[in-house]
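Internal tracking record. Fields below are filled automatically when a chain is submitted to the structure queue. Please do not edit lines marked as system-generated. If the sequence contains nonstandard residues, flag them in the REMARKS field before resubmitting.
Queue: standard
Priority: normal
Entity type: single polypeptide chain
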Amino acid sequence: MIQITHWSNGVFGVFLSHVETRNYVPGYRNFTGNSRYRIRPPGVPFGRPQRQKASVFRQGLLGEHVYVIDCGPDFRQQMLNSSTNRLDGILFTHFHADHTAGLDDVRPYSLRYGHLDVYADASVIENLKERFGYIFATEGRYAGAPNLKVTEFSNEPFNLSGKKIIPIEVLHGWMKIYGFRIDNFAYITDAKRVEESEMEKLRDLDVLVVNALRIDPHRTHFNLEEALDFIEKLNPKKTYLTHISQHLGLHAEVSKNLPENVFLAYDGLSIRI
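SYSTEM-GENERATED OUTPUT FOLLOWS
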């Protein structure tokens, strides 16, 4: 993993990676109030035998608040590699294990800073309480368990450290999950279909990050053709493809066939907008 670049006016970053295959290169994206971005990629197209799950890191532009979107099983290593020593909360896209299995590893942050804010929809909250019962126990609770303050959100905007967070409801196969828009940046993973009403929330983006699993169709994820059609309809200034499997192809070969301003994320990419 690359190091997060910290700026005096705060850092906002996103870990970008695909989630379906056994081998891949992790992705990380980071930007500041100066709109500087750094991305670690979705990678078996690079042929590297590494795999970490998708997650998003956000250190607020207002103050020093730090949030992540999702915390998969590689959360601990991602945070260690980022040299980030603070965490204030988590926003969850959905309850699948590759987006939630690292929840126990937030405990050092809650022990240091007090409770962590968790934002999730009802299905995620129910699933986490079932899988991580010891965290949510009210009697005989293990003292070392993470201390979480859970806030349920629905498909309505909410405020986070002075920023308006706009949930984007997408369909992951049959399952309703969420992406998020923050200012003119949007992050969507695991999407297969997005209704027109939700696409209206994604107009006039500077940067879109969206999944593109492979060439062949998949029943629960965009393939490349579907992702490019989605991008064409929205027409963001720039788009980065993530959630990529080795079945998409080699990085150089795929890149040369992509439309202008659509890119595969790769290790260490840094952009400004």
